[in-house]
Amino acid sequence: MRIVVIDTSYQYSFSIGLIDDNKSYSVNISFGDEDSFSLFWKGLEGLFSLCGVEKRKVDAVSVSIGPGPFTSLRNGVSVARTLSQVLSIPIIPFSLVEVLEEHFSKLEPTLIFDGRAKKILIKKFGFDNLELVKISDFNPSNDEFLVSVGCKKIFEGTGIVPVNFEVVPFEMVSKVILKKLNLGLKKDFNEVLPFYYKSL
Fold it and tell me: Cα(first)–Cα(last) distance of the chain, in Å?
């Protein structure tokens, strides 16, 4: 089973990978003001070349639906939907929430994502909803295990020190994808939509 993995949940980087039976490959690409969409296609072509795999010999595509920045998520989901439609393959959507909660489940983490405009998205373990709060109003208890994505600069000088990821490791993402694949949690291209900050 060959699965292309697309994770565009970040402001200035993205991750693409390939799960090929028991092997996996991934590339993280950072960018500034460049056209991230054209960089993405170049990165995808490079990944196929590196792995020696033809695009048409892919069985599924998996894509992050967020949380993440509007444009980045929209681009990632658009690419996944295009690949799904053109190659007639299913999509396995995943969220960073389920990836991080799966990995840190024994520690019952509080997850934190950059909400922009001096706000953060918080997801408490065991609760369904994410909460958008001002950074100045965030006051975690001493016993909370904090895990954040893209929040290193946000918490500088605050005394709050979460485990922070600028890009969530591919190994953590692929574990969730394979679990969802085994459960048959696949979708058609027209069923997958990104989670936007603005949907809160």
Answer: 36
